[in-house]
Amino acid sequence: MRTTGINETGGRKDGRKAERSGSRMKRGSFVTVTLLTLAVAILCGCAGPGTGEGGKATDPDAVDTGGVIETATPEPTATPEPTIARTPGPDQYMMENGVIYSAGGFTDMNDQTFTFKKGLNILPLDYTKKYFNKLVLRYTSTKALKLNVTYVVEGEEVVDTFYLESGENVTFKGLILGYLDGDTATEIRELTVDSRKGSSELTVHELSTEYAEVHNDKTYYIENDRYKIGVRLSWGGGINYVQDKQCPVEGLTNLVNSHDTGRLVQQSYYGGYDSSYTPGTFNGSTWPYNPVQGGDQYGNSSRLIDLEIGANYIYIKSQPQDWSQNNLITPSYMENKYVLESDHIRVDNRFVDYSGYPHGFSNQELPAFYTVSYLDCFWWYNGVNSWTGENLSYRDSLNFWGDQKYADDCRFHMKGDNTETWCAWTNTKDDFGIGLFVPNIDLFYAGRYNYNKSKNSGNDATNYVAPLLTIQLQSYKALEYSYLLTTGSLENIRATFTANKDFASNESLHNSYTAEREAFIDYTNIDFSDKNNAAAFTALNNCSLGYNSAGKALKIRTKAGGDPQVAIYVSDYPGEITNSKYKTLTIEYMVPTSNTRTDYVCDLFFCTGDKLSPDGSERVREELICDGEYHTLTVDLAGLSFWSGKLNLIRFDFFDECTSGDILMVKSFRFEN
User: Fold this and answer.
1) How far from each other are the two terminal CA atoms of the chain, in whole angstroms?
2) Triad 127, 130, 135: Cα angle to 5°
3) CA gap 464, 3 in Å, rounded
4) 140 with 172, same domain?
5) How far apart are CA 393 and CA 575, in angstroms?
6) Does 426 reside within a domain?
7) 199 & 228 share domain
8) What are the Cα distances from residue 285, in Å, to 281, 290, 359, 368?
9) Distances in Å between the alpha carbon of 394 and those of 86, 379, 447, 570, 651?
10) What phi, psi does 15 have (nearest 5°)?
C-alpha cells in the first residue's frame, strides 16, 4: 500500500503541462476530403453548467484565506449555424443526430453496427466550424474500448485518448486535453477505435460537442450554511478543503491535509501488472500499478475528464496518474460525486480500470484520507453491539503507518458482525474533528506522520486513515462505493452517522474479496486457547509474537536490543475495566528451561483514569518461575494505591534482563472480580 503522500522530490510539476500530454502535430495536406467541424447539438454562446454559491476558481495555495481569482473564460467567436446533414452517399453512413461519416477497418457491418478488433476508423463529414472543449459520444458496445480522437486546436492537430465502457446506449463525455488552459477546438477529423479484449461490436448513435465553462487549474468550492468544500480540479478532483463553519477552534479552517498530490481525501487502488509494465519505486520499495486520483509522487497532476457543478454538488471524472511512475497516466477512470447535506457530506465513488493487467488481491484504500496534524486522537468502535452507544476505542499516540515496525499497531480490525464502521480524527483538548463512515469495510489502517499539532493544511505533518477491504480489481468492471464525512464533537459525529447508518450498503465491494475481520476479543478474559485472541497483544519493542498451536499459548520471543515489551490496549474493549468491577489480575505463563537464564523479573505498567501513556508511577514488579511448567501470577489490584477509575492500557515488560531469543509462553490473561 502507498504508505505516505510525501513528495520526496520537494516540488510539484506544472499541472498545465501535465494536462497537455497528448500529441500535437501539424498535418498540412493530410486531409484529402473536406472535413468540417462537428455540429453542436445544442450550443448557444458559452453557457456551461450552473455554479453553486461560492463556486469560484481559487488559488490552491491560499485555500485557508478564501482568496478568489477571477475565472478566465475566453469567449468563442460567433460561428454559422450547423448545416443540415445531407443523405449519405456511397460507402457513407449517418448517425441518429444526422452526422454523416465514412468508416473502415471493420470485419463485418450490419445496420451500422461494426464488428472489429483494432483500428476501426471513423471519419465524420459535413460539419460547420464550431468552438468546443468537450466531446459527447452516445454508443452501444459489447466490449470496453480505447478511443483516439484527432481534433484541431489553434490550427494544430491533437490526438487525444479516451476509454469507453461496454454497454447499451452509453453516453460518454470527455473534456479536451487543454481544457484547464482554456483551449478550444474547431474540428474533429478522425476517430480510431480499438477493442480492449477480443472482438467487439460497436454502434455509434450520436457524436457531438459542447462548450463547457472553464474553471482553470485551481480549487473549486461549493458551500451551504454548514460546510464549505473544495476539490482540486487539476489533482483529479480530490477533496483538498473541508471547512465546518461552526468550528469552535480558533485558526482551524481546513481539516484536510493538502500538502501534495498524495494527500487529500481521494481514491487510490493497488493492482498487478504484466510483462509490458515496468514497476516503479517508492520509499525504496518496488511499487505496483497504483492509480492515484491526485497525481504521482513527483507531483504530476492527474487529468480532468468531465465536470458538472450544481447548487449543492460537484461531479468529477478523472484519469489518474500511476503513483510510483513519473508522469505516466493510467488507463483508468475515477468518478466522484460530492453532495452537501445539512449535517454531512456524501461522496459516491466509482473506478474502472482498462489496463487488462492480471490483478491480485490487495488491501484497497476506501478512500485514502489525510487530515491536519492538529487532530491528535484516532477513534473507532471496536465492539459487536453496533449503534447502541457502547464505549468507543481510541489511540492518541499512533506512529507512522509507513514504518513496518509499527504496521501491526496501525491496523484496527472490525469484530464479528460490527456494522458501526466509522472512525474519526479529533483534537482531544477541543473535542472537535472530522469523521469518516464507510459501510461494510473490514479494518482501518491509521497513523501519524511527523506529528507537530499544526493546523496548516499545507504542512508536511499529517494524520492518515484508510478503511480497507482486501479486493481483487477486475479490469473493465466498475468498483463502486459510498461514504459520509461529518464534523463536530465526537458525540455529534457519532450521532450524525447513527442517524444515517443505512444510507448505503457497499455490498458490491464484496464480489471479489477476502475477509479480514477478527473475532470479538473479551479483554477481561483473554484465553489463548482461541488463537484469534492473540490479536489482543501488540508487540511494542524488541520482541515478536507467535502462536504455539500444540500448547495453545501465545509465544513471545525476545529480539536483540533488550527491554522487550508488549501491550494490551484495554481501551479497545467496549466495556470498561474499572476498579469497582475487577479486583485481581491473573496471568498463566511458562518460562522454558531452554532459555539462557534461570531467573526473570517482569514489570507491569498500568495506565488508569486519565493516564494514557505509562510513566512508571503505576507499576507492579514480579518474579517469574523458570522451570518449564505453567504457573499463575496473581496481582492484587484492589491492594494497589493507584487502582482507581478505568483501566486504559497495560504494558507488559515481561523480562527485565534477557538475551535475544528468550521465550515466554502465555496461556491466559484474566481480570477477576
Assistant:
1) 44
2) 85
3) 9
4) yes
5) 10
6) yes
7) no
8) 5, 13, 19, 20
9) 70, 4, 12, 10, 16
10) -65, -35
Which amino acid appears at position 508 of this protein?
A: S
Q: Is 156 found in the same domain as 250? A: no
User: Could you give the angle at the alpha carbon of 370 between the alpha carbons of 369 and 376, nearest 5°?
Assistant: 120
Q: How would DSSP label each residue in 441-462?
A: --EEEEEEES------TTSS-E
In a domain, 24, yes or no: no
The strand pair at 265-268 and 361-372 is best described as antiparallel
> Is 562 buried (19+), middle (13-18) or exposed (0-12) by CB count in 10 A?
middle
State the Cα–Cα distance between residues 446 and 407, nearest whole angstrom. Answer: 9
Helix, strand, coil % over all residues of the chain, rounded to 5: 5, 45, 50
Backbone angles phi, psi at 641, to 5 degrees: -65, -30
> Is there a single domain that holds both residue 250 and residue 341?
yes
To the nearest 10°, report the CA torsion of 47, 53, 57, 63: -170
Q: What is the CA radius of gyration of the chain?
A: 30
For residue 664, count CB atoms less than 10 angstroms from its CB and return exposed for 0-12, middle for 13-18, buried for 19 or more: buried
Shared domain for 657 and 540, answered yes or no, is yes
- Same-domain pairing of 466 and 342: yes
Tens of pLDDT along 447-497?
Answer: 999 999 999 999 999 999 999 999 999 999 999 999 999 999 999 999 999
On whether the CB atoms of residues 24 and 157 are closer than 8 A, the answer is yes
Please tell me the distance from the alpha carbon of residue 307 to that of residue 233, in angstroms, as a whole number: 9
Question: Which residue's entry shows cell 502507498?
Answer: 2
Domain that holds residue 122: 35-217
* Exposed/middle/buried for residue 117 (C-beta within 10 Å: 0-12, 13-18, 19+): middle
Amino acid, single-letter form, for residue 322: D
Q: pLDDT tens-digit profile of 527-540?
A: 999 888 888 898 77
Is residue 342 located within the same domain as residue 431? yes
The average confidence (pLDDT) of the chain is 87
pLDDT of residue 128: 58
Q: Which residue, of 465, 480, 514, is where some domain finishes?
A: 514
C-alpha cell at 142: 459489447
Q: What is the mean pLDDT of residues 538-554?
A: 91
One domain, residues 203 and 236: no
- pLDDT tens, residue by residue, 392-438: 999 998 999 998 888 888 999 998 899 999 999 999 999 999 999 99
Looking at the predicted structure, is the pLDDT value of residue 204 above 90?
yes
* DSSP three-state, residue 253: coil
Average pLDDT over every residue of 46-53: 35
pLDDT value of residue 51: 35
Domain count, the chain: 3
- Give the cell for residue 644: 482507581
CATH number at residue 59: 2.60.120
Domain boundary among 514, 544, 564: 514
Q: Residue 422, CB half-sphere, CA atoms under 13 Å: how many?
A: 28
